[in-house]
Amino acid sequence: MSEPFDCDSCKESLYGRKYIQVDDVPHCVPCYDRLYANTCQECKELIEHNTRELYYEDRHYHELCFRCSHCNRPLADQPFTCQEDALVCNDCYCNEFSSKCAACGKTVMPGSKQLEYGGCAWHEECFVCCGCEQPIGAQSFIPDKGEYFCVPCYKGRFAPHCAHCKEILVQGGVTFRDEPWHKECFLCTGCKVQLAGQPFTTQGEDPYCVKCFSNLYAQKCSACDKPITGFGEGKYVSFEERQWHQPCFKCSECSVSLVGAGFFPDGTKILCKSCNTK
């Protein structure tokens, strides 16, 4: 008699039946599936021995259950990712999580050429000048009220021109007599020092730094002979054809301040009431 050839688990005879050995121990197919088959993460059914099985991050799937959770596309041969334990195909992931082109509204796919500015993204071919409608690419551009211009278009349409050199004023600059100037063009008429950021005054149509204006045009104090410029100790007292800085307007004899007080002229002198009566 031949020796019995039975399933190690259910002990039923395996003669004439399909079986599977595990470590040289035979099992009938139902017992093998019950003992060793993995459970599908998606449908929770056993993945039987004759079914193609897919494995991802310690999880097992039937091939037909391995699908995008958004569009139900099979993912067996497709790029995908996992979001909060859900499988997501590359297209759905990009549509949900990737930037949208500010011009055409379509997804800017990861790895594609794109431009980013001010928190927005564009396909490279969609980022065009609002003037000539040519792609800006890696060229310099200038934003203006939500629109973007290549430098030549912006210069031709919008940029102010410096009142001195007539060249384009792209950014910065100063305004003098309602006209724009480059900072490097706005100079003292006398010494040619830049006036941007420092006090200045004018004589006629021309701007001057304080020093040049003082030397050329300012009245001199009758007491200290220094210019009365209107800057710093700018308040002054005027009498007939003479001017004094307020701190210099003192009695010529006792040096008491005469600002707001009566005084008496005596030739080149000015006297307080007390000194005048001596």
Automatic annotation (TrEMBL):
GO terms for biological process: actin cytoskeleton organization. Keywords: LIM domain, Metal-binding, Nucleus, Repeat, Zinc, Zinc-finger. It holds the Pfam family LIM_FHL2-3_N. The keyword Repeat applies. Gene3D superfamilies: Cysteine Rich Protein. It comes from the Eukaryota. It is found in: Nucleus. Its main location: nucleus. Residues 38-98, 99-160, 219-278 form the LIM zinc-binding domain. InterPro entries: LIM_FHL1/2/3/5_N, Znf_LIM. GO terms for cellular component: nucleus; stress fiber; Z disc. Transmembrane segments: none annotated. One of its GO terms (molecular function) is zinc ion binding. PANTHER family: FOUR AND A HALF LIM DOMAINS PROTEIN, FOUR AND A HALF LIM DOMAINS PROTEIN 3. This is Four and a half LIM domains protein 3-like. It comes from Carassius auratus. The gene is LOC113062146.
